[in-house]
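Deviations from the work plan: none for this task. Representative record:
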Amino acid sequence: MTLQIKQSTGPEFSRILGLGAARGTNVVTNDDIAGPIDSSDEWIQQRTGIITRRRSDAHVTVIDLAEEAALKAIAAAGITAQEIDAVILSTVTYFHQTPAGAALVADRIGATPAAAFDISAACAGYSYGIGQADALVRSGGARNVLVIGAEKMSDFIDPTDRSISFLLGDGAGAAVVGPSDTPGIGPTIWGSDGSKAQTIRQTHSWQDLRTQPELGWPTLRQEGQTVFKWAAFQMPVVAQQALDAAGVTADDIQVFVPHQANMRIIDQFIKQLKLPDTVVVGRDIADTGNTSAASIPLATDRLLAEGQAKSGDLSLQIGFGAGLVYAAQVVVLP
Amino acid sequence: MAYTEQDILAGLAEIVAEETGLPADSVTSEKSFTDDLDIDSLSMMTIVTHAEDKFSVTIPDDEVKNLSTVGDAVSFINGAQA
C-alpha cells in the first residue's frame, strides 16, 4: 500500500471573534486640502460624501496603526496574542519589499511564532484576508487568525492631485477569525481584472525613482470615471453573488458595509441590490475618508460601537480597488 | 432591434430624469449635460451605463468626454447600433 501523508483538519465553521479599530488622530477638513486642488468643501461633499478624513502624524507608521487595531481585536475576541497562529496584514502603504509588515506586527503584539505574511490587494485587502482566514481555520491550517487592514495613505498622496488623493485617510482595522459552532463567514466571491490595472496606480515604480530621481516620490492616481463605472455597476453583481453563495437575500441581512470609496458608489450599491431601508449601511467615509484596506473593518467597528449594528447581525461586506481586484462575503458580526 | 433617433432621445430623457429628478421633457437635444442639466461626471457615467443597457450599445469610457450635448449622445448611440 502506498504511504499516504496526513492532512490537517479543522472545525466545520469559522467566525469573526472580535474587531479592533485605529484611526489617524488628525481630523482634516475639506477646506484644509481644497486649495492645492482648486476645489471646495461643497464640491468634495457633493461628489464624494466626504466631510473630513483622518490622517496620522508623520512619525506614525502603518505598523503602529496595525498594532493598535490588532491589540484591540485580540482583546475583543477574548483571547491572548499567544493564541494567534497566523497574522495577515493587508496594506499597500508599507514601503519595504521585505521583511513583511505582518512579521513586525506579530512580534510587537506578542504573537510570535505565528505565521505572518502581507497581502497586497488594495481596497479589497481586508475581504481577501477574511476569505483566507476562513479557509485557514476550517482547513486546520490555523486555529486563530488575525487579519489587519492597515494603511498610511497620507504617505502616498500628492496634495495637488485631483483624481484620488483628497479622498484618502489613515487607519487600521483588525479582526480575529477563529473556530465556531455555527457558520460565521460565508463563501468569498473574489476575483480580478488586470486589464484595468492602469485605472488605479502609482505614478511610477521604485525602479523608476532610482533611475530617474527627478521624478520624485511616487503617488497615487486614478481614472475616476472608469473606476466609478466598474465599482458602481459591476461590483453590485459580485455582492449579489456573495449573498447567493451564503444562501441569503437582501431581505435577510441587517448590515451592509462596502469599501468606503465614495458615497455615490455606496448609494448605487443600495439601488442595484435593492437593499431595504431596514439594512444599516456603513457610511464611515463621511468622517474618516477612504482608508483602502482599513475601510471595511473601521466602518463595521463604528456601526457596532454606535449601536447601529449588533452582535449576531448578518453583514454583507465587499472590498474592491486597485488591480483591479475585489472580494465579498457575508459574515456574522461579533 | 434598431431604435430611431426619436426613440433614443425619449429613452435617454427617461434615464436622465431618473438620475437627476429633472422632468424628462426638459431633456432636449441642444442641452449640454454639464452646463444646462448640471450633470457631473459621475452622474454622466451612471447615465451612460443605463443607456448602454437600454440600447444594447457600448459607449467607451474615453468617448464620454466627447458627448457634450444630449444630441451628441443620441447621435453616438444611433451610430453604435449594430
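Chain A has two domains: 13-180, 189-332.
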